[in-house]
Amino acid sequence: MTLKSLIAAAAVALTLGTSGFAAAQGKLEKTDIKIAVGGKPLLYYLPLTLAERLGYFKDAGLNVEVSDFGGGAKSLQALVGGSADVVTGAYDHTIQMQAKGQPIVAVTQLGRYPGIVLASVNKSGTVKSVMDLKGKKVGVTAPGSSTNFMLNYVLTSLGMKPEDASVIGVGGGPSAIAAIKRGEIDAIVNLDPVISQAQADGDITILADTRTEKGTMDVYGGPYPAAVLYMKPDFIKENPKTTQALADVFVRTMLWLNKASTDDVLKVLPEEYFLGNKSLYAQAFEHSKPTYSPDGRFTQEGADAALKVLKAFDPAVASASIDLSKTYTNQYVEDALKRLQK
Fold it and tell me: Which sequence ranges form a coiled-coil region, renumbered to this chain (predicted)?
């Protein structure tokens, strides 16, 4: 092979590695996509920001508009209301919405552990253990979000009711830090980088931590799916190639993240994500890195765990006949992996 042909071959390989997805799938039914998320700067949703800033949406032929809401419940509302096409949100919502007769389907798993932390606020000084949460003010990203679900499950597992604690939405960024520092809440359920920032400042004491496999097992008794890409079944039916392109983007991102160093990640992110302390953000990322899915695949075990947890505190789920096979699919992930892992 001549030097010229080697260069040409390399160019073809590079093209396939970046923009070959759209070509591989043919013409997309829909290229302008509105994505809703509840707390984009949170490490829970890091894959979305990485996909955007690495140019993977553009490579796949997608023009994406991201709307960031105060919590996952609000991004779900955007999907239901029609102002969003797809959501990066908690897998739990796929089960809850099926119970309400409004099915949604997860097509890529971004997080295999929740990465959510329950902590007491030291300034309040009223919560020494999870048993002290009754009657206390607990900050969550937003009522009805995955942070709220963790609180509900912890309360019910201890024989209390979700309404035994007063839930206050504090967001997932500077507003959460401010609520802690002002002593507006007695405890907080939140994610990195908020948790790492508050811990470094000496403002909280961790009571339960699902950033690791052990911590997730301690809280939930098994693996627990976290952030996913989900959408309505009608969107999938009407836009199968676009759905595949979206799955391609996130699978590609998960594979990149699985191999990336902390420095690799920091170089991609905007400065405002670091909350004024880049080294602390780096630590927070390293705490959270085990939470990410290595390849985007779902497991039946994880889905079973989520259903068990939701049944414990959500009467609508407890009384419904849930078909977990309709809450997620690995079809699009497997197709993406066949091409990406060649």
Answer: none
